[in-house]
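seq/struct pair 1
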Amino acid sequence: MANQKNKAAVVTGGSGGIGYELALICAQNGYDLVLAARSEDKLEAIKKDLEERFSIKVHVFVSDLSEMGQPAELHKYCRVHHIPVELLINNAGYGDYQPVANADPATLSNMLHLNIIALTELTALFVKDMLRQKSGHILNIASTAAYQPVPRLAAYSASKAYVVSFTEALHAELKGTKVTATVLSPGVTETGFVDRAGMNASKFAQGAQANAADVAKAGYAAMQKGKLYVIPGFLNKLLAFSTRITPSRRLILAVSAMISK
C-alpha cells in the first residue's frame, strides 16, 4: 500500500460501478475518501466497509450534484473539514437512450447539468486548491461515445465530447505545474448505466461489456502518471482513433447510427 497519509480523493458517483471501483483503488493506496452520490444507504455501507478494511477515513456527502449550488457545497465541505484533496475524480453522470423527439426536456437538462456543469464547477473549484498546494490529479470520466455523434444518445455523446475537449484544454493549461488532468473514455461497461439509460435492447448492450474494476485500474494508473488520455480496450482505442482521422463526418455519423440502433 502506498503511503498517502493525510491525502484524500473526492469521488463523485462513488456508490457503484466505475466510481466505486476507483474509490476502492484509492482506499487500497491509502487515500482518505470523500464520496458524493445520492444514495445515503449505499454510501454509508461503503464507508463502513472501506474504513474497516483499509484504516482510512471516509466522508459521505449525500447530494444530487446536478442541482445548482451542490458542487460548491461539496467543495465547501472539504474546506470546512480541512480535507487536503489530492485527487478529484469526476465520475457522476448518466445517459438517456432515445430519439431527441421522444426525450423529456427536463431529463436532458438534468443530465447536462450533471455531465457538464457539475464536472466543470468541481474542476474549477478544486484545481485552484491543487495549484496552491502544488500537487494534485484530476480524472474526468468521458466515454467512447464522445468521439462521434450517437443517434439516440445525442445529448449524452455531446456532453462527453465536451468532457474530452475540456480536459484536453485543462491538461495544456496545467503543463509545467505539479497538477495534471486525465480523461478516461470507457466503452460499454458492466455498471448501472445501461439500465438507467434504457439501453438494454440496443446493439450497444448486446456485446461483451468491459469489467468496471479493469476500467478503473486503467484510469487510476493513467491519472497517477499524469497522462492525458486513457481508453481501455483495443477496439475502443481503434474506434476513437479512427473517428479522428476519418475525413467524412457523414460517414462517421452513418456508422454510429447503424450500431446505435
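seq/struct pair 2
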Amino acid sequence: MQATVKWVDGKMFLGESGSGHTVVMDGPPDHGGRNMGVRPMEMILLGLGGCASFDVISILEKTRQKVSDCRVELSAERAEGVPSPFTKIHLKFVVTGVALKEVQVKKAVELSAEKYCSASIMLGAAGVELTHSFEVVEAA
C-alpha cells in the first residue's frame, strides 16, 4: 500500500492514496490552517469507522441479513498535551433493515472488533480503549 501527502500551504495538505483518490487535510485557524479539510486525526477516526463498517456490512451480507442502511457514530477522547493520541474510542453501529436478527448484528460487530478490522486491532494494540455498541432499526 502506498500514499503521498503533499504540502499545499499554511497547514493544508493533499493526501493521495495508492488507488488514486485525493483528500484535503487542513488545520484550524488557531493553528495556522484555514479549516478547508478534515484534520489528520479525524482521518484516523474516519478510517476506523470505514474499516469497521466494511466488515460489519460484509458479515451481515454473508449471513443474508436484509440491511438497508448502516452508520457508525464514533466518539473519541484524546490525551492532554503534545502529542495527544486517542485514549478512548467508542463505535456505535446503527443498522437498519428488514427483520434483522439482533444476534447476527451483535456477532458482526464483535467479529469486526476482535478479528477482522485492521484499524481496530492496530489502535487497540497501541493502547487505545475501544468499545462498541449497536442498535437495530426496523426499516419502514
